[in-house]
Amino acid sequence: MNNNITGILNMHNCNLCPRNCGADRTISDKGFCLSGEYPKAALASVHKFEEPPISGTRGSGTVFFSGCNLKCVYCQNYTISQENMGKTLTTEELARIFLSQQEKGVHNINLVSSGHFLPKVREALILAKQCGLSIPVVYNSGGYEKAESLKFLEGIVDIYLPDIKYFSSELSAKYSSAPDYFAAASKAVTEMYRQVGKNSFDSEGIMKKGVIIRHLVLPGCRKDSFKILDFIKDNFGDSVYVSLLSQYTPVYKAKEIKELNRRVTTFEYQSVIDYFFKIGLQYGYMQSRDSAESIYTPIFDLSGLDTGKD
After folding, report:
1. What ranges make up the beta strands (E) of the chain?
2. How far apart are CA 40 and CA 60, in angstroms?
3. Helices 91-103 and 118-130: angle between axes, nearest 10 degrees
């Protein structure tokens, strides 16, 4: 690594994400993200419930990482994001897991919430590519990233799959403990698009490069969703795809919050879809009302993490 990379990706005084917490993460499980220096993961599996051009017919080779720099009160994966369940991996072990996923015939390698491990994940991807990893790499993110850190993934990541969860700082503070969420996420997504550009697909419709922005519609927050769609339209037009998610269900701490302790109504979700088309957006994905079923939530049992062996 050059000095610039070493400075920004310094785990002794971590300022990798917008939290800038300054923790010494070479001491285990420190920092706001509850994470040490080396990646911790809870599952490596063939995932078939991503957007169609990601999962395709053969699935996405997904690695679910533990810990998180957000504190979403409604997180479906809270056992790994907030309770930090998982297995710590060396760089070499992680690289072997990537290669093992490729051997299963998947369309891509899918890194779910790996941003707080960016230095070691970056090293593992470079090592895996040197050892024959040739399928696209998907960076699947909650969106709360620092654009300066993302620059070190240029040429390594092919597809960005970020959330934009909120426009309102009041909502992001209340539900994810991140009042600066949109300020950070908007810059991060702009950097992601700068790196990979417009979406491209192979002859089977499988994504090879580009950006899909996800947005989960929350109860009572449809007008905030409208503002996010306005941002996407004004800054990217149809150069990115938008995935509008209806899968919200009250889990974890959301069950204790009155306004979040219900499903999104058909009216709320449909109004966001209608607004998508009203402002002239064309390319995206919508979900059916049964998308909150438990079948779509992975079982985090450490499968696939035995240094790339099942």
Report:
1. 40-47, 60-65, 87-88, 109-112, 137-141, 159-162, 200-201, 207-216, 241-245, 284-286
2. 20
3. 50
Contact 264, 224 (CB under 8 A): no
pLDDT in tens, 106-134: 999 999 999 999 999 999 999 999 999 99
pLDDT tens by residue, 49-105: 999 999 999 999 999 999 999 999 999 999 999 999 999 999 999 999 999 999 999
Which residues have C-beta within 8 Å of that of residue 114, sequence separation ≥ 6?
39, 63, 65, 121, 139, 140, 141
Pull the structure tokens for residue 190: 């702009």
Cβ within 8 Å of residue 278, ≥6 positions away = none
- In this structure, is the dihedral angle defined by the CA atoms of residues 55, 199, 246 and 74, taken in order, positive or negative? positive
Largest CA distance in the chain: 53
Cα 118 to the center of its chain, rounded Å: 13
